[in-house]
Amino acid sequence: MIHFLLRRNWMCRIRLALTLLGLPCTVGSSGRSSHTARPITSSCCNLYTTSVLTMPTSAVPHAKSRCPQYPGSNVKRFPVPDNQVDWSQNWPQYKPVSHTDSAVAKKPAWADPDIGSFSPNFNAVDGSVDRTSFEGSYKVENGKPLNPRGRTGLIARGLLGRWGPNHAADPVVTRWKVDAKGAKIQHPVTKKPILQFVSIKRKDCGQWAIPGGMVDAGEQVTLTLQREFSEEALNSLSVSPSERAKINERITKLFKSTGFQVYKGYVDDPRNTDNAWMETVVVNFHDDSGDSVSELPLQAGDDAGQVKWADVDSSSPLYASHSHFLELVAKERKSHW
Predict the structure, then answer these.
(1) Which of 17, 83, 92, 143 is a plausible cystine mate for 55, CB 3.0–4.6 Å?
(2) Cβ count near 249 (within 10 Å)
């Protein structure tokens, strides 16, 4: 994967969005961009991107990454106003709170050791751990990486295992909402067909979300997408071998279809800190005919408390940036939002 160093100039927003999507771009003096859709081939599935710009601008300060109380703890962040988020702002009074969750401090296999006890190779693939960022090259200060989107009011790693980018993958599995005769149901106001997506209720915070999880060291993102969906939405780890084989057959069929790469980049996540942050690849796999995963019984597993088919609608509050991802899917599928 090729990563670009982005210059801070008037073309920044356009180039950032297109670069992270892997799209070609030419920009003229008018500031208009020229780009085309193209397939992205992987070892597990085919992905495509479109001309829709899916990257939120970095000019908007992250908000959930500055939530007053750090999740899963009683730790209060140092308050960071919008005008002090960017590292370029001189702020001698900044006194961030240090916090690393006990689960991370116990040094499980998925977490890095403390800085000082090892020397990670940041902005590079470090052994089996990918420490590159979709945002481009990030700064390292006093041996520790700095969040490319700015201050969060908290240093160290919090709940995140890796120093720097923590890579995840989120599969958005959709189908059309249909009536008893199989006809698409249209929204009464927008007159557009209604999409449904597989939604899980997270055990850690109780919010509804897209299923997904962390990319294991050395694992291909496409395999993470399939694994996380099977484990969280279909509870494939607890079923019999014969049932698991049936699930895998259906899932493999869907995930080998052409998927729509919705987003690739930084995630405004409440677990983020000044030194560790979430990044993800979001891919939409659509069961257009309704004869693939639509026929499988959903069963919550792994980190999910509940699981269901939910309507894609702007009024539904979701975890982190997941509402934004669904909005992009709705635009691509020309469905109700």
Answers:
(1) 17
(2) 10
